[in-house]
Recover the amino acids of this structure.
Protein backbone atom coordinates (compact mmCIF):
# COMPACT_ATOMS: atom_id res chain seq x y z
CA UNK A 1 0.00 0.00 0.00
CA UNK A 2 1.39 3.42 -0.94
CA UNK A 3 1.75 6.12 1.70
CA UNK A 4 -1.10 8.08 0.13
CA UNK A 5 -3.43 5.08 0.15
CA UNK A 6 -2.53 4.26 3.75
CA UNK A 7 -3.21 7.85 4.86
CA UNK A 8 -6.53 7.88 2.99
CA UNK A 9 -7.59 4.54 4.51
CA UNK A 10 -6.70 5.62 8.08
CA UNK A 11 -8.52 8.94 7.56
CA UNK A 12 -11.70 7.14 6.47
CA UNK A 13 -11.52 4.63 9.36
CA UNK A 14 -10.90 7.39 11.95
CA UNK A 15 -13.77 9.54 10.76
CA UNK A 16 -16.11 6.60 10.43
CA UNK A 17 -15.46 5.81 14.12
CA UNK A 18 -16.03 9.44 15.12
CA UNK A 19 -19.27 9.52 13.15
CA UNK A 20 -20.49 6.38 14.91
CA UNK A 21 -19.78 7.97 18.29
CA UNK A 22 -21.53 11.13 17.22
CA UNK A 23 -24.59 9.18 16.17
CA UNK A 24 -24.66 7.37 19.53
CA UNK A 25 -24.32 10.63 21.46
CA UNK A 26 -27.02 12.32 19.37
CA UNK A 27 -29.50 9.59 20.25
CA UNK A 28 -28.66 9.14 23.92
CA UNK A 29 -31.36 11.66 24.92
CA UNK A 30 -34.07 10.06 22.78
CA UNK A 31 -35.84 8.38 25.75
CA UNK A 32 -36.17 11.77 27.45
CA UNK A 33 -37.73 13.39 24.38
CA UNK A 34 -40.08 10.43 24.05
CA UNK A 35 -41.15 10.65 27.69
CA UNK A 36 -41.64 14.41 27.30
CA UNK A 37 -43.94 13.93 24.30
CA UNK A 38 -45.98 11.35 26.22
CA UNK A 39 -46.27 13.72 29.23
CA UNK A 40 -47.27 16.68 27.03
CA UNK A 41 -49.91 14.62 25.20
CA UNK A 42 -51.32 13.20 28.45
CA UNK A 43 -51.43 16.63 30.12
CA UNK A 44 -53.22 18.20 27.16
CA UNK A 45 -55.69 15.32 27.02
CA UNK A 46 -56.54 15.84 30.70
CA UNK A 47 -56.68 19.65 30.46
CA UNK A 48 -56.65 21.21 26.95
CA UNK A 49 -56.20 24.71 28.46
CA UNK A 50 -53.20 23.74 30.62
CA UNK A 51 -50.26 24.96 28.53
CA UNK A 52 -52.17 27.97 27.18
CA UNK A 53 -52.88 29.20 30.71
CA UNK A 54 -49.38 28.38 31.94
CA UNK A 55 -47.70 30.27 29.11
CA UNK A 56 -49.52 33.53 30.01
CA UNK A 57 -47.90 34.05 33.44
CA UNK A 58 -46.68 32.32 36.57
CA UNK A 59 -48.19 33.13 39.95
CA UNK A 60 -46.64 30.64 42.37
CA UNK A 61 -47.55 30.97 46.00
CA UNK A 62 -44.43 29.14 47.16
CA UNK A 63 -40.68 29.37 46.77
CA UNK A 64 -38.93 26.06 47.47
CA UNK A 65 -35.27 26.11 48.52
CA UNK A 66 -34.13 22.50 48.60
CA UNK A 67 -31.25 20.13 48.02
CA UNK A 68 -30.07 19.27 44.49
CA UNK A 69 -30.44 15.58 45.38
CA UNK A 70 -32.25 13.84 42.50
CA UNK A 71 -34.54 12.08 44.98
CA UNK A 72 -36.09 15.31 46.25
CA UNK A 73 -38.12 16.92 43.43
CA UNK A 74 -40.22 19.83 44.71
CA UNK A 75 -43.34 19.54 42.54
CA UNK A 76 -43.84 15.79 42.87
CA UNK A 77 -43.30 15.68 46.63
CA UNK A 78 -45.86 18.39 47.35
CA UNK A 79 -48.27 17.34 44.58
CA UNK A 80 -47.89 20.74 42.90
CA UNK A 81 -48.38 21.44 39.20
CA UNK A 82 -45.97 23.41 36.99
CA UNK A 83 -46.52 27.09 37.78
CA UNK A 84 -47.35 26.49 41.44
CA UNK A 85 -43.86 26.54 42.99
CA UNK A 86 -40.74 28.56 42.20
CA UNK A 87 -37.65 26.48 42.87
CA UNK A 88 -34.03 26.98 43.88
CA UNK A 89 -31.83 23.98 44.67
CA UNK A 90 -28.22 23.58 45.70
CA UNK A 91 -26.18 20.98 47.53
CA UNK A 92 -27.55 20.61 51.08
CA UNK A 93 -30.13 23.45 50.73
CA UNK A 94 -27.83 26.18 51.99
CA UNK A 95 -28.76 29.88 52.14
CA UNK A 96 -25.64 32.04 52.29
CA UNK A 97 -25.70 35.83 52.43
CA UNK A 98 -22.96 36.07 49.80
CA UNK A 99 -24.62 33.65 47.34
CA UNK A 100 -25.95 35.98 44.62
CA UNK A 101 -27.60 33.07 42.81
CA UNK A 102 -29.79 32.11 45.77
CA UNK A 103 -30.44 35.72 46.84
CA UNK A 104 -31.44 36.67 43.29
CA UNK A 105 -33.96 33.84 43.21
CA UNK A 106 -35.36 34.95 46.58
CA UNK A 107 -35.50 38.60 45.51
CA UNK A 108 -37.29 37.78 42.24
CA UNK A 109 -39.68 35.40 43.97
CA UNK A 110 -40.56 37.87 46.72
CA UNK A 111 -40.52 41.19 44.89
CA UNK A 112 -41.73 40.24 41.42
CA UNK A 113 -43.69 37.00 41.82
CA UNK A 114 -44.82 37.97 45.32
CA UNK A 115 -44.72 34.47 46.76
CA UNK A 116 -46.33 34.19 50.20
CA UNK A 117 -44.35 31.30 51.63
CA UNK A 118 -40.70 30.30 51.33
CA UNK A 119 -40.03 26.67 52.18
CA UNK A 120 -36.50 25.70 53.16
CA UNK A 121 -36.61 21.94 52.71
CA UNK A 122 -33.86 19.62 53.87
CA UNK A 123 -33.94 15.87 53.65
CA UNK A 124 -32.77 13.01 55.83
CA UNK A 125 -29.78 11.09 54.52
CA UNK A 126 -28.37 14.16 52.76
CA UNK A 127 -25.00 13.32 51.21
CA UNK A 128 -23.71 16.87 51.63
CA UNK A 129 -24.58 16.92 55.32
CA UNK A 130 -23.07 13.45 55.74
CA UNK A 131 -19.79 14.60 54.18
CA UNK A 132 -19.65 17.55 56.58
CA UNK A 133 -20.59 15.41 59.58
CA UNK A 134 -17.86 12.86 58.86
CA UNK A 135 -15.24 15.38 57.65
CA UNK A 136 -15.06 13.65 54.26
CA UNK A 137 -13.00 15.26 51.50
CA UNK A 138 -15.02 15.33 48.29
CA UNK A 139 -13.37 18.12 46.29
CA UNK A 140 -14.33 21.69 45.44
CA UNK A 141 -17.69 21.17 47.12
CA UNK A 142 -15.87 20.92 50.49
CA UNK A 143 -15.74 24.72 50.47
CA UNK A 144 -19.52 24.92 50.06
CA UNK A 145 -20.03 22.30 52.76
CA UNK A 146 -17.98 24.44 55.13
CA UNK A 147 -21.31 26.11 55.92
CA UNK A 148 -22.63 22.80 57.26
CA UNK A 149 -19.46 22.40 59.34
CA UNK A 150 -20.30 25.78 60.85
CA UNK A 151 -23.78 24.52 61.77
CA UNK A 152 -22.26 21.44 63.39
CA UNK A 153 -19.83 23.53 65.43
CA UNK A 154 -22.52 26.01 66.45
CA UNK A 155 -24.65 23.19 67.83
CA UNK A 156 -21.90 20.94 69.13
CA UNK A 157 -23.71 20.49 72.47
CA UNK A 158 -26.82 19.11 70.72
CA UNK A 159 -24.69 16.90 68.47
CA UNK A 160 -22.77 15.51 71.46
CA UNK A 161 -26.06 14.76 73.25
CA UNK A 162 -27.37 12.84 70.23
CA UNK A 163 -26.75 9.11 69.79
CA UNK A 164 -24.17 8.50 67.03
CA UNK A 165 -26.71 6.73 64.80
CA UNK A 166 -29.04 9.76 64.97
CA UNK A 167 -26.45 12.49 64.36
CA UNK A 168 -26.91 12.65 60.59
CA UNK A 169 -30.66 13.16 60.98
CA UNK A 170 -30.05 15.76 63.69
CA UNK A 171 -27.57 17.74 61.61
CA UNK A 172 -29.95 17.65 58.61
CA UNK A 173 -32.63 19.20 60.84
CA UNK A 174 -30.31 21.78 62.45
CA UNK A 175 -29.06 22.76 59.01
CA UNK A 176 -32.60 23.59 57.88
CA UNK A 177 -33.23 25.66 61.02
CA UNK A 178 -30.00 27.63 60.46
CA UNK A 179 -30.80 28.25 56.79
CA UNK A 180 -34.28 29.51 57.75
CA UNK A 181 -32.56 31.92 60.12
CA UNK A 182 -30.11 33.04 57.41
CA UNK A 183 -32.96 33.65 55.00
CA UNK A 184 -35.08 35.53 57.53
CA UNK A 185 -32.08 37.76 58.24
CA UNK A 186 -31.39 38.54 54.59
CA UNK A 187 -31.90 42.07 53.24
CA UNK A 188 -34.48 40.77 50.76
CA UNK A 189 -36.77 39.50 53.50
CA UNK A 190 -36.06 42.46 55.81
CA UNK A 191 -37.04 44.85 53.00
CA UNK A 192 -40.20 42.87 52.20
CA UNK A 193 -41.36 43.05 55.81
CA UNK A 194 -40.42 46.75 55.97
CA UNK A 195 -42.72 47.34 52.96
CA UNK A 196 -45.50 45.54 54.79
CA UNK A 197 -45.42 42.58 52.41
CA UNK A 198 -46.73 39.33 53.84
CA UNK A 199 -44.14 36.61 53.36
CA UNK A 200 -43.21 33.77 55.70
CA UNK A 201 -40.18 31.50 55.90
CA UNK A 202 -40.71 27.87 56.97
CA UNK A 203 -38.37 24.98 57.81
CA UNK A 204 -39.31 21.49 56.59
CA UNK A 205 -37.57 18.17 56.17
CA UNK A 206 -38.30 15.31 53.78
CA UNK A 207 -37.93 11.61 54.56
CA UNK A 208 -36.44 9.56 51.71
CA UNK A 209 -37.66 6.37 53.41
CA UNK A 210 -41.36 7.25 53.55
CA UNK A 211 -41.85 10.25 51.24
CA UNK A 212 -43.24 12.34 54.10
CA UNK A 213 -42.43 16.04 54.62
CA UNK A 214 -42.19 16.96 58.30
CA UNK A 215 -42.58 20.41 59.83
CA UNK A 216 -39.57 21.47 61.90
CA UNK A 217 -41.80 24.00 63.66
CA UNK A 218 -39.93 27.06 62.61
CA UNK A 219 -42.08 29.58 60.71
CA UNK A 220 -41.10 33.25 60.68
CA UNK A 221 -43.41 35.97 59.39
CA UNK A 222 -41.86 39.16 60.81
CA UNK A 223 -38.68 40.71 62.15
CA UNK A 224 -39.87 40.38 65.75
CA UNK A 225 -40.68 36.71 65.29
CA UNK A 226 -37.13 35.69 64.29
CA UNK A 227 -35.62 35.10 67.74
CA UNK A 228 -38.68 33.51 69.39
CA UNK A 229 -39.23 31.15 66.44
CA UNK A 230 -35.54 30.18 66.29
CA UNK A 231 -35.30 29.56 70.05
CA UNK A 232 -38.58 27.63 70.03
CA UNK A 233 -37.36 25.32 67.25
CA UNK A 234 -34.09 24.62 69.07
CA UNK A 235 -35.79 24.09 72.42
CA UNK A 236 -37.00 20.64 71.32
CA UNK A 237 -33.39 19.41 71.18
CA UNK A 238 -31.61 18.24 74.30
CA UNK A 239 -28.09 19.36 75.12
CA UNK A 240 -27.76 16.77 77.89
CA UNK A 241 -25.90 13.60 77.01
ZN1 LIG B 1 -29.08 16.50 50.07
Amino acid sequence: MSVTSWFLASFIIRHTLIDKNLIIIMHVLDPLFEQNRIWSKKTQAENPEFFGELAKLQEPEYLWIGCSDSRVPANQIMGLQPGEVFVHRNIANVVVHSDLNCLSVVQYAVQVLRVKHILVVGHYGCGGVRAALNDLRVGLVDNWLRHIHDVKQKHQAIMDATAPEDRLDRLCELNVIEQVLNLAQSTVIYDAWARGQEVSVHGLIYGLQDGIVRNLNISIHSLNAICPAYNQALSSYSTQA
